[in-house]
Amino acid sequence: MTRPSSLDRLAAAMPLIIGVYFAVQVAVRVFISPSLGKDEAEQVLLAQEWAWGYGSQPPLYTWMAILLFRVFGEGVLALALLKNLLLAGSYLLTYAAVRRMAQNNVVAALAAASLLLLPELAWESQRALTHSILVVFGSALFTYAFVRVLQQGRAIDYALLGLGFAVGCLAKFNFPIVAIAMILAALTMPGFRAAVATPRFLIAPAVSAALLWQPAVWLISNRDATLSRAHKLTMTQTDSPIMNYVSGVWGLAWGVGIFLALLVVVYGVALVRSAPGRSLDASAAQFAGILMRSVGIALALCVILIIAFEVTQIKDRWLQPLLYLGPIIAALWAYPRLAPWRVGAIFAVTGLCAATVIALLVLRTVAGPSFDRPNPLNGPYGALSQQIRDAGFRNGRVFAAFNLLGGNIRLQFPDSVVISPEYPNFKLPASGKSLLIWDATRGDPMPGKLVALYKKFSGKSVGGQAPKYVSAVMLHSDRHRLRLGVIVLTTP
């Protein structure tokens, strides 16, 4: 009996390693600050009520946040758990999917670890993102189910595929491009065509329709809210359609290049002067082929959409559900060409990336103010809220100038309802105290949009009441201060 190699032992331990890594990420997030980042604050605002939709983003992430808030209370712990459970799930589903594709634990572990070579996923997802994290989980779930459909094609596999599609759609509206591309890719390959060109495949859309119909009704009924950020796609349009096409396609190419750059460099270096040294299960090459074809079809669909709508702005994070497949393709294609020590070197680089992410997450908040780079997690909202209580507000209606401020104030005043100009649709108490609050660090007067928001809901102007100002030293700083303007009013 052959003794397991170090790579085999590492591969077998990969699920545990993934779990420990993201548990550490939860601990780090809770440790570094009790304050919220921009996307976290947005979720705290949205989670004030259940709804079938929340403006320009699908609702699933907020639903999950509400559930965790009810278990762990509103705050950083619940948000960190949600984010890292989804990330851990994406890595574990990748491991499970590739193990099925390649029939090889080392390749599965290599693909999962290589997700750390995508900065948008390894760094940006921890630093800021929410819905983008969920859509990657949706892509991982859909990919895992897709492999099961192609290999076995049982009814449960098609149902799981439908669930994966629904999760992806309820995470980000761009997800269907990926799913459609994968299905089209299967239809173009004789070895896989039968799995999708069968009446049994109808189970998948049936499951998706059952899960998506009510959010779809909300979306259609609230088109203005759903499309409120669509202008970002065309905000740099010119009068020349050709220039718009060039700008959009170039943006897509640039986004793909930036997204995959580190992955390509690491695997490129590992493959220098390499030679085939082992073979994989024959199906692994087929799966690498269908995934590469899926990416190609999806990019072609993106180009068609760019031309059809003259899209000029493409952000690399919008490509996450598609380019998530990059590390899987890289691992499947490169592994037979890599000597064991080269595979070990890639694992070492991914481990270094993981350690770097943790270190930077701590340093950006704990040491950032020392380099004049404070970030939202340095906000001293506990100290500021005590001063607001001393000014006469304890609960009631809060009109916040922007989401970051509103979400953080909501944590400090959990019995209050908080609205902002971007999310003004929550039901407010009919009477009681009203708090108007804005950032006055640079001496800014109360923003006009905040005045308008208050007048819209109260039917009254703020009047001539002079604002009060509260300030506190920012967390992990001895000289940076955050100053807020506040007005406390009583609504009869």
How are the secondary structure elements laid out?
Elements: H1 6-32, H2 38-46, H3 60-72, H4 76-102, H5 105-114, H6 119-127, H7 131-151, H8 155-169, H9 175-187, H10 190-196, H11 203-221, H12 223-226, H13 241-271, H14 282-309, H15 320-323, H16 325-334, H17 340-366, H18 381-390, E1 397-400, H19 403-412, E2 417-419, E3 432-439, H20 448-458, E4 468-473, E5 481-491
Helix pairs in contact: 1-4, 1-5, 1-17, 2-19, 3-4, 4-5, 4-7, 5-16, 6-17, 7-8, 7-9, 8-11, 9-14, 13-14, 13-16, 13-17, 14-16
Description:
With 492 residues, the chain is α/β, with parallel strands linked by helices. It contains 20 helices and five strands. The chain has helices spanning 6-32, 38-46, 60-72, 76-102, 105-114, 119-127, 131-151, 155-169, 175-187, 190-196, 203-221, 223-226, 241-271, 282-309, 320-323, 325-334, 340-366, 381-390, 403-412, 448-458, and strands spanning 397-400, 417-419, 432-439, 468-473, 481-491. It has a five-stranded mixed β-sheet with strand order 2-1-3-5-4, sandwiched between helices. α1 (6-32) packs parallel to α5. The longest helix has 31 residues, at 241-271. The mean pLDDT is 93.
